[in-house]
UniProtKB/TrEMBL annotation:
The lineage of its organism: Eukaryota, Metazoa, Ecdysozoa, Nematoda, Chromadorea. Coiled coil: none annotated. This is Uncharacterized protein. The chain crosses the membrane at residues 285-303, 323-343, 349-371, 383-405. The keyword Cell wall biogenesis/degradation does not apply.
Amino acid sequence: MWGSSFTACYGISLLLIGDRLVVGDNAFVSTLTSESFTLPAKVLGYVLRELHPHIPYVVVVTEEISNETVDELRRHNIDVQRTEKIDTPYLADHKATKFQYTKIRLWSMTSYSSLVHLDLDTLPLRPIDGLFKCGSFCAAIRHSDMMNTGVFVFKPSMEVYNDMVVKSSLQNYSSYDGGDQGFLNTYFPQTKRGPMFIENDTNQNPPCSFPYRPLSASFNYDIGMYYLNGGRALLSPAIIHYTMGPMKPWKWWAYPLFDINSHWLAARDGMEKSFSERRSPDIELVWTLLVAAFFSAVLYKVAHIYVCDRLLAVRGLTGRFEYLLCPVLFVSLSFLIAFHSVSEQTRPLPAWLFAAAVTELSLIFGGLLYASLRRGRRASAVAAAKFLCLSVAAACSIPTGFVLFSSFSARVAWLLVSGNQ
């Protein structure tokens, strides 16, 4: 009865296997409008393929994405389709790239019966193919009365698509955030009033009775709510949504502050191992620790041989305010230099160790130049040459074999940091 009602409502062929409804021509889909989200797209594609090897994953890319990136995604067995970006009608007030209406294009993908859209900052933790049983449009209502469209289920339709295109160009057709999320909230207001979609409830009404349904928060698990609740999960997440912008899980500085990011990092490990995109984690750890030991030894020698003596000489020439302020400025500037010297998508461990080494080097070199200036000497290439010579002399106090080995490992670490995107 349920199956015949579904077929009558949507004209879609289906197959009932046990208690699972399998609908033909389903797919997962995401939109990619920025090159910086290429790595998340590869990780999400890997996870979906591991969970659902027979369901395709489609990434719709706009004109901002290069052909090289498209080829890279296809090497990861991702179906890539190009489309044109749809700008928000509120472009004057919302210039950021995230404020656009490109997701409207998804409704024109009528070769598919049903699609589950996933933002690239989401991560499924278990099979989610039960979502294909939902109605014409389903999305989660989160911590407000608005839907979050990071995850939603829909049925493509040219009629709906054409209507959306017309309405998306109207400035009087409201979007509370100036982007497609606000537009979809206005276009599907009835979703929040429908009965909750229950994934495994075989007794619920067929989707044609309630074509618009809210999804459980487990399908759009906001990590912000997780941390506001003291790091306690109120429900078991099916899909994690990494909503904290500066702390996305592919940014090295987000570790180890946010424990829930470890799920994404484990998925990245699996993806890179599957496609041989990096060396073994154990080898990487060994090289990084060797580099850290080398830099620590050099900095210890340099600090005690030269820099500390110079700064002690300056201390008698400075006032109390300068004496207190300069260390704060040195530390802040050194941290900024280190922060910007490492690509944001570098793996956390080598990134932190490399950044720490750069911070220490910047502190010592900055102190050297400042001491030279305050003693009335020119901060020239001579001062830099002295610093480099003393660094080499300090390194020579370490056994020669270790220095040579560490120099080689330093090169390896640099390749890891600069090339591991």
